Automatic annotation (TrEMBL):
<feature type="transmembrane region" description="Helical">
    <location>
        <begin position="128"/>
        <end position="150"/>
    </location>
</feature>
<keyword id="KW-0812">Transmembrane</keyword>
<feature type="transmembrane region" description="Helical">
    <location>
        <begin position="171"/>
        <end position="190"/>
    </location>
</feature>
<feature type="transmembrane region" description="Helical">
    <location>
        <begin position="89"/>
        <end position="108"/>
    </location>
</feature>
<feature type="transmembrane region" description="Helical">
    <location>
        <begin position="196"/>
        <end position="215"/>
    </location>
</feature>
<keyword id="KW-1133">Transmembrane helix</keyword>
<protein>
    <recommendedName>
        <fullName>Integral inner membrane protein</fullName>
    </recommendedName>
</protein>
<feature type="compositionally biased region" description="Basic and acidic residues">
    <location>
        <begin position="1"/>
        <end position="26"/>
    </location>
</feature>
<keyword id="KW-0472">Membrane</keyword>
<feature type="region of interest" description="Disordered">
    <location>
        <begin position="1"/>
        <end position="46"/>
    </location>
</feature>
<feature type="transmembrane region" description="Helical">
    <location>
        <begin position="227"/>
        <end position="249"/>
    </location>
</feature>
Length: 263
């Protein structure tokens, strides 16, 4: 009788104990639940990171838009207000101008059936766009260095290179708008407008130098030198730079800028 009771107790304990299959199933369920939790958390983290990036990009566009509007309202006045000048926004303007100018030039090359020198259709996008954008960026950088050197040593103005870059980038905003319009009308293939915008962009860059020289001469107590001669030297240096880089100018810029007929 005692032996039967012991066997019954033993059998009940065995029934109460989970089998190996049950343990394996439970373990798999636990791992699956944990994996789903980790996956859900990773997805949430990715969404949060993406939202933060989008908010940051949107905020950056908004801040640069406010900066650009302030420059467009009165460029010559804004460059003399220290609180409106920002180094990063100046470089953004410089890079954006290089990009839009290169894009517009490429579109002009592709639509150059009304141009004098070449049709441009044999230029790949990467080849034409990269070379012209790098050329434009180099040209603008050398222009800023020239303004600083002439302002500091010819006009004897107490101005730093950083200040010249900030002012140049701020004054470049109206010319940046012209480059965007140039791209739009190049896509529409309207040579009347693109030629006028090309001339306006070129003279706009010269006006930037004049405005900066005037600012240096008036605000930094320039002791000697003449504004007119500083402007002539600046133009001479700019033409020398273009001459040194004529292989790019003659191959990629002239064919897109010189009109032969309209319509």
């Amino acid at each position: 009788m005692l032996e039967k009771d012991q066997e019954q107790v033993t059998s009940e304990m065995k029934n109460d104990e989970p089998t190996i299959d049950q343990e394996t199933r439970q373990s798999r369920l636990s791992r699956s639940t944990a994996k789903r939790g980790r996956t859900s958390k990773a997805a949430d983290d990715e969404r949060s990171a993406l939202q933060r990036i989008l908010r940051g990009v949107g905020g950056a566009f908004k801040r640069y838009g406010s900066y650009g509007l302030a420059m467009l309202k009165s460029p010559s006045r804004a460059i003399n207000q220290a609180e409106t000048l920002r180094m990063k926004y100046a470089w953004i303007s410089i890079v954006l101008f290089s990009v839009f100018f290169a894009l517009g030039n490429y579109v002009q090359l592709k639509a150059s059936k009304t141009r004098l020198l070449g049709f441009g259709i044999h230029y790949s996008f990467g080849d034409a766009f990269l070379k012209v954008s790098v050329f434009t960026l180099i040209l603008l950088t050398l222009m800023m260095l020239t303004v600083w050197v002439l302002g500091k040593y010819m006009l004897k103005g107490n101005i730093s290179l950083k200040e010249v870059i900030m002012k140049f980038g701020a004054a470049l905003v109206p010319v940046l708008v012209l480059s965007i319009l140039w791209l739009v009308f190049a896509m529409l293939n309207i040579p009347y407008v693109t030629v006028m915008l090309s001339v306006m962009m070129f003279f706009g860059l010269q006006l930037i130098a004049v405005v900066l020289f005037r600012s240096i001469h008036s605000e930094h107590e320039a002791m000697r030198g003449d504004l007119m001669y500083a402007g002539w030297v600046f133009l001479l240096v700019e033409l020398v730079i273009i001459a040194l880089l004529w292989s790019i100018v003659g191959e990629y810029l002239i064919p897109s800028l010189v009109p032969v007929r309209f319509g």
